[in-house]
Design brief:
By secondary structure, the chain is α+β, with helices and mostly antiparallel strands. The protein has 12 helices and 9 strands.
């Protein structure tokens, strides 16, 4: 696990010095007056990391071998695919000072290089100077979404759904639309429904037990992302509900995610009889902040 280094006021950060800081140029459309492009980079800090350059070269060479591409994976190819800008990427591989990459651009670069989770974290620390959070991923491209659709369709008649980091429903199969019609609604969110919809408290057996898990997941997002609009919307919902507010104020649990748990449902599509299920969660390598939830029935449903 990678930890962010901390230090006192006089602590020196690797690759930084007062002499090495460059006045911020006036940029327009990613090109500054001295001809250096800054597309895809944030403008609040600069990075000069020889180690980053070495790793980018190593990862690019490895990606060439792993993906078996017929042509070389060049610096320009990665720059074009990630929107960084060719000159900026060249400078990064050379270890030259450049403003740090935005989290979304860093995530796109990690996906193009096929980095493992720990390598992706290292790239974020070196290139973006932050640890990645749930909201730092770029949206998967169309090909990845097509592959996820194939997974959902292959699961039929078992209910399956694709969720993003904040548990927003991105796509679902027909079966889960029958079990939980709310997934077909605009802006459907699993945590919002589970916490606030009256049906959830009767259809999820032991709702008062699972609510601690959902609130723990939300608290983790609040810790990672701060009071961003999507997180704050759910917090406001909790504070308006006396039952949820009491549990929220009493508990300080933080939970990363769910998966593998067994639970019992009483759904109208099953005539209200109890159906025990196990929740399997798959994490797509090409979309690290998405998850595929598959509700596998243990109790026969027919």
């Amino acid at each position: 696990m990678l930890m962010r280094a901390t230090g006192g006021r006089g602590a020196r950060r690797e690759g930084w010095s007062r002499q090495g800081q460059v006045p911020r140029p006036a940029c327009h459309r990613g090109m500054c007056r001295n001809g250096v492009d800054h597309a895809g980079v944030s403008d609040d800090a600069r990075v000069s990391q020889p180690r980053l350059g070495e790793l980018l070269k190593e990862w690019r060479k490895r990606a060439q071998y792993r993906f078996g591409s017929g042509s070389r994976i060049t610096q320009k190819y990665l720059a074009d695919r990630t929107g960084i800008g060719w000159r900026t990427y060249q400078a990064l591989e050379a270890g030259e000072p450049r403003r740090r990459l935005s989290p979304a651009t860093t995530d796109a670069l990690a996906r193009e290089l096929g980095l493992a989770a720990d390598e992706r974290d290292l790239l974020f620390v070196l290139a973006a100077r932050v640890m990645p959070g749930p909201g730092d991923a770029a949206d998967p491209d169309a090909a990845v979404m097509d592959d996820l659709r194939l997974v959902l369709d292959s699961a039929e008649p078992t209910p399956a759904v694709v969720l993003d980091a904040m548990w927003n429903v991105q796509m679902h199969n027909r079966a889960i639309g029958i079990w939980f019609p709310y997934v077909r609604e605009p802006r459907a969110n699993v945590i919002r429904w589970s916490l606030s919809h009256p049906d959830a408290r009767t259809q999820i057996v032991g709702w008062d037990h699972y609510v601690h898990q959902w609130l723990g997941i939300l608290r983790k997002h609040l810790t990672d992302r701060g009071a961003r609009p999507d997180v704050q919307e759910l917090v406001t919902l909790i504070e308006a509900d006396p039952v949820l507010r009491a549990i929220w104020e009493e508990s300080r649990d933080i939970r990363t995610d769910v998966g593998g748990e067994r639970s019992t449902l009483r759904l109208p599509c099953h005539g209200g009889r109890p159906v025990e299920i196990v929740m399997h969660v798959l994490s797509p390598g090409a979309a690290p902040h998405y998850k595929v939830g598959i509700l596998t029935p243990i109790t026969p449903t027919t």
